[in-house]
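Entry for the shared binder. Reason: the reviewer on the internal report wants the predicted structure included alongside the sequence.
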Amino acid sequence: MDRLTTRGRVLRIGATLVVGALTLAGTAWGDDTVFPFAPFRMFSTADKPNEPVLVLRTDGIDTTGRRLELDERNAGVRRAEIEAQIERFKADPSLLHSVQEAYAQRNPGRPPLVEVDVVEVRHHLHHAQPTGEITEVVLARYHP
């Protein structure tokens, strides 16, 4: 097996020191945006033991008045996509029209949607245990 040259050793040590320094700095001051040089804080932290756990849900109401949960199967939209753009939907609920259209395209024989809601479901906790109390708050509503 060939030995590493002095230049090769210096380059490897230098690269190791740079990656180590970036990881240390990212751990101390970074957030999810500088991954892999910082931990995913969403996985390394816990919710406060007496604060509610928040989950977003997208609902549709069809012309018969039936409320249904919209998801990847029936509307082609994942919860993460809604969560990533929730501030945009809150500022301009008409953007939810695209969810309404996607549902119509995927479900041609079903009654069309007359309303699309983004709902924040709050699961209340006490000492990190569910209390059974659940409240729902509509964050964005599109009703043409």
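Summary line for the report: Residues 120 and 137 are 5 Å apart (CA to CA).
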